Amino acid sequence: MAMDGLLLFTITKQLQTYCPCKLNKIQNLSDEEIVFQLHTKNAGTVRLVCNVHSNTNRIYITQKTETSQSQPTNFVMVLRKQCAQCIIESIEQIHYDRVLCLHLQCRNELGDYTNNKLYVECMGKYANMILVNQEGTIIDALKRIPVYENAKRTIHPGATYILPKQVKKVNPTEVTKVDMDTSLVDQIYGFSPLLSKEFQYRMANGQTYQDILKELLNSQSLYVYPHEYHCIELTHLHQKADVYPLMVGLDHLYQANEQQIRIKEQCGDVFRTVDKELKKAKKKLPKLQSSLEKSYDYKKYQQYGDLLFAYMHQIKKEKVVHVPDFETGQDVSIPIDMRLDIKGNANKYYQKYHKMKRSQSILQEQIEACKKEIDYFEQLHEQLQHCTVMDALEIRQELVNAHVMMHKRSRKQAKHKNKPNVLHLQVENVDIYVGKNNLQNNYITHHLSRKKDIWFHVKDYHGSHVLCKCEQPNEALIRMCAMLAAYYSKGQMSSSVPVDYCPVSQLKKVPGAPVGFVTMKSYKTIYIDPDREQIEKWIRKYKK
Q1: Where would a tag sit more exposed on the chain, N or C end, judged by fewer CB atoms within 10 A?
Q2: Within its chain, how far is the Cα of 252 from the centroid?
């Protein structure tokens, strides 16, 4: 569902409480998502996210620190030049429409004050961000629309900014009479078809328009349904909603989709490299196995050489010669290379015999190495399915260290980070650590752990290392850690997933094995059903 004007009104009310505020930093999380770091008087430093993706456009305050793209987009560079260290004086909604205007007090190149405006249009596929100067001229836009695409409303540097056209309707706070036979979308500003159905359903069941509107305008919550959301309960859907504080709900709303978009944009080369290497290894394995099967016939080439030397002076040089076998007396057909004499052909077969005999051990080693390579890249492929941007960057570093990928140079030097980005939960004063890639698993198992800590890993699957910093965890903690290990594994969508656990003292690091690989001496097994909703609740409640 696209955001409607009345939902945006409640969001604007909360955003206005942060004004006036100072704009410190501007970064792009993805090509169509920009985060503004604001310094406010009462709330300290907050992060304002403006998202103008076609299907997920919204504006909200986030507490999370997402990884920004290493290279800023052109529009972000323009914003940094025009609006760096400016003051956001106020945030205004235009006529209950899905358009917000951020009034900015900036300084130009001469140091004089100028009043620019940043319009955030949350209008579905037409969502956009447009920077306008005090004369009403467009400085730049995130999505430019030249005149040959839309002659009525050109969005391009140098053009005059025109607000989206609105059909004349009634202000929602000034409604005196509602036509129940007509959709409220056609009567009142700010309504979407979904909200219209909810109002009409409630009014048909005895509530007044004013009471419903008052509840909506004073709402501080977001009700999220499987396919819909709003700041009031959508009773006409007859479904159970997940209720969040307004800004938290907007942040959570499209978290999985946005995460994948950011990862693909910032770490797409990691996905491509893993897929390419996995495909290459899977293509190589049957060829090696075929070569190994052929090498088992190496003794026949020794026989060919022996027979050719034995009958060298009795046979006539032909493409195929037939000579009797020493033991059975039956004729053996031997192909002859016409470029060589009989002696040369015999020596050639001896060479082939020795080569194939030696190749067996080499091919077996290569097959084992290829299987391990397939297993390794399948593990990375699985880890990439449920990782964050930071996790994907760590996987890239792992591939760089293994000389699979080249080091990616950037103008912006990344700060050296000693600790991997592990998931850390604290439950009843007990620390639980969850690794989502090999570097994190290795760090948890070999650096954070102590001998008596309890270690968890899903059985017979690639998965996360989970560490419980408790010598004798109760059943609830054991089940929680087991579910985390099962959820962050290939068995995420399965039921009754077996999870092995043991003290860290029972683990052994295998010399020469990939990063994060260990074996267990003795262990116990618990069977668990991964529950995504439960995992998300634990993360929201206990994450450090």
Answers
A1: C
A2: 14
- 3-class secondary-structure state, position 148: coil
* pLDDT tens, residue by residue, 48-84: 999 898 888 889 998 877 777 778 899 999 999 999 8
Distance CA 232, CA 210 (A): 14
The pLDDT > 70 percentage for the chain reads 97
- 221-224 vs 128-132, strand pairing mode: unpaired
Q: For residue 154, how far is the Cα from the chain centroid?
A: 35
Tens of pLDDT, residues 306-319 = 888 888 888 888 88
* Selection from 66, 51, 28 nearest residue 393 by Cα: 66
Report how far residue 16's alpha carbon sits from residue 103's, in angstroms, rounded to the nearest whole number.
Answer: 11
pLDDT tens figures, 135-156: 999 999 999 998 888 878 899 9
- Please give the Cα distance from 224 to 145 (Å, whole number): 33
Q: How far apart are CA 325 and CA 302, in angstroms?
A: 12
Beta bridge pairs of residue 509: 518
Q: Which of 152-156, 241-245, 297-301 has the least mean pLDDT?
A: 297-301
* pLDDT (mean) for 175-198: 91
CA pair distance 347, 336, nearest whole angstrom? 12
- 10 Å CB burial of residue 494 (0-12, 13-18, 19+) is middle
Enter the tokens of residue 464.
């996360």
Cα–Cα distance, 431 to 425 (Å, whole number): 6
Single pTM value for the model: 0.67
**CA distance linking residue 470 with residue 467, whole number of Å:** 9
Give Cα separations from 158 to 138, 425, 485 (angstroms).
Answer: 5, 51, 55
435 phi/psi in degrees, rounded to 5: -95, 140
Please give the average per-residue pLDDT across 276-289, as a whole number. 94
Q: What percent of the chain has pLDDT over 90?
A: 48
- Tokens 């900036």 found at: 106
Give the H or E element holding residue 476. Answer: helix 475-487
The backbone region for 493, taken as left when phi is positive above 0, alpha when psi lies in -120 to 50, beta otherwise, is alpha
Question: CB count, 10 Å around CB of 367?
Answer: 16
Nearest to 479 by CA among 526, 542, 423: 526
